[in-house]
Amino acid sequence: MTLEPRSAPVVPIYYGGDYNPEQWSPETWREDVRLMRRAGVNLVTVGVFSWAQLEPREGEFDFGWLRSVLDLLGEADIGVDLSTPTASPPPWVMARYDDVAPLDERGARFSHGSRQHFCVLSPNYRRLAARVVARLVGELGDHGAVRMFHLHNEYACHVPYCYCDRHAEGFRSWLAGRYGSVPELNRAWGTSFWSQRYATFDEVLPPRMTPTHANPAQLLDFKRFSNDTWLEECLEEKRLVREVRPDIPVTTNFMGLFKPLDYFAWAEHLDLVSTDNYPDPADPQAAFWSALHYDMVRSLNKSVPWVVMEQTTYRVNWRRHNVPKVPGQMRALAYQALARGSSGLLFFQWRASRSGAEKFHSAMVPHSGERSPVFAEVVRLGAELALLEGLGAAPVAAEVGVLFSWPNWWALEEGTQPAQDMSMQGQLAWMARPLYDRQVTLDFCRPAEDLSRYRAVVAPSLYLLSEQEGANVVDYVQQGGTAFISFWSGIVDANDEVHMGPYGGPLRPLLGCDVLDVAPLPPGEQVEVEWEDGTRTAADFWADVAVERDGKVLARVASGPWAGTPAVVETAYGAGTAYYVGVRLDTGGMRRLYDRCEATCGREGEPGVERTVRRAGGARYEFLVNHGATEHQVTVTWPGTELLSDVQAAGTLTLAPWGVAVVRSQDG
Ligand code: GLA
After folding, report:
1. Which residues line ligand 1 (CB under 6 A)?
2. Contacts 24+ apart (CB under 8 A), 438-441
3. Where residue 11 falls among pLDDT bands split at 50, 70, 90?
4. Same domain for 361 and 273
5. Deepest of 17, 177, 514, 641, by most Cβ within 10 A of its Cβ?
6. Residue-number span of the structural domain to which 132 is assigned
7. CATH code for the domain in which residue 614 is found
């Protein structure tokens, strides 16, 4: 089967990228528009880093050049995602106002000359940012080309935390709001330890440099406070935009698994969730991480669409060694995003810069211009998107939920844990990768949200868990759900205080055994795990030390000092079942566990091929994406039309290296 594009007029999916016209002459703008049309571009993000050109001197604004750009784009029917320029204040801002520079935990000041060099609580930054945003939307918000607003750029990406005096003051008021009184703060933070008891809120500081470990609860609250502070700034920008254009969707670009911001809380405020995704093409796990990224972003706000706002066509320039995507890999990763629900494919950036820190970052139009093979791939992809008519908003139904929370991530990786090499991403990969191999689509879920739509949920080290969150998970199982709960879950409450007694806190009813202690294993060492039928697999990293209770022990640790301790326990609870996993099972062990629940966890699919289904308007779209350099024969689940080639597909089809197929069939 050849997958040559056929022509189709309708382009319902956003296609384009960041466009930085301030780096180019008006002559190049016209050339850009010509090339954008050639590539099928229908949306570009403009203005992200334009502040210095929009307000070259304080209070002197120049929107004329940007209006001309928008005119050109509008005439060519290319939509604009108009960005506020606040991620990079011009040099005059810092030169004039002392309060703008953020401070690190040692009190060192960041300078201008890069980007993101501001303290989000600086009154002058806030005043000037609000003014330029208001002026921008006032001048250009009602321009006919504008289809979307883009707030800032990657909030908090380089300087997520500032430790200045304003942050100290803000933190104190935030704490007063959260705890009401100093004794309550002392209780929540456990300040009886190391003589940390506060007499007044005024004594509290942000966690600046300390001789050894700072109070973990203080660290956790500072992360909460900083997140709230960033969100407040974002919402102020949103308010200013909304005042002028209440009718246009507003977004800001996330960074997937970005630790400092609680994107669940942010996504509630957006009309469209968007994300920037830069998997390392040289990483054999790139497709998995990318899938996980998209599943996460899609499920942050389950009632709005989402889009890939940035990715690279070829290569980034910020890794030590920047291996490019091989021919076809860009397309495969792009279809992966569509397969997982994205309403568009946008790139950083449209035209490769001639100078500056990202001049060797790839773009849709490389330095070599139209003749570049990358541009040819861009044109091909744009043409193909026109064939996916009807897909635009088709939902993705995920089967399994990953219980995830940012406060848990913050607390889990704080530096006083039994295993400081415990990482949220490591735990996620351990539990989710085998599900990805089984072609299970995941949603990320807050532990307290309604879980009833999922066949199963997995809890990778859900260390920080409130009573209420835990009760929700227990209730889900009681009502008939299946939960896989890993070691180091249900350990502390929202204040990072240990749930006393055997470990597990509110999840204890689901563990089926009593976890009396934990044993991080010597690095690199494995223990054997013996299953009921006598077969053995291995585990490493961690073993809970547990005694039997009311669950059925499916496997035990079978070597080393903790031999005999339950390693996997199945507990029937209400109408559902819980699986507790007290060790880090190897791949074979995880396979055994998920195999036991084939109805919920599916079966392993074709290695290297991703299979996902979207449904809309009575149609079913089965996406098959080959993430490797080997050809694959794949089975088509439902006979239908392969949209990219307009060929009837049934039985098996051949996926070329990095090949893609989208088979549309009648649903029902
Ligand atoms: C981020 C930023 C862009 C650019 C790219 C480079 O996504 O938003 O401005 O720096 O990274 O990969």
Report:
1. 153-154, 276, 278, 310, 316, 348, 358, 361
2. 438/594, 438/601, 438/602, 438/603, 438/604, 438/605, 439/602, 439/605, 439/610, 439/611, 439/612, 440/399, 440/400, 440/601, 440/602, 441/295, 441/340, 441/396, 441/397, 441/398, 441/399, 441/400, 441/612, 441/613
3. very low
4. yes
5. 17
6. 14-163+219-391
7. 2.60.40.1180
